[in-house]
Specification:
Layout: H1 7-27, H2 35-61, H3 65-79, H4 85-105
Helix pairs in contact: 1-2, 2-3, 2-4
Length: about 110
Amino acid sequence: MAFFDSEIVQDEAKRLFLDYQQLMELGGEYGKFDREGKKLYIERMEEMMERYRVFMKRFELSEDFQAKLTVEQLRTQLGQFGLTPETMFDQMHRTLERMKGQLEAQP
């Protein structure tokens, strides 16, 4: 079975995409959240990023041609911005850590 033919892969891709869209929409209102809302938003972002990291690792470990091609396309696209998937995840993690630090510094 091809990588993208798997119902599990398709379902997780859909859920990741929808969850990401919802979080991005909510993120536009982040400044209006109370302290607990901000903490919850950061937690949800961390959970989503971990799911995305695992999903991408499945692509990397797969022997499927389409999965390998997808990884290479992502690397090429990120490379145009001077990034790799690893640096992208590191930057996202640092951003979330900075957001946590700002939240803890608030009275």
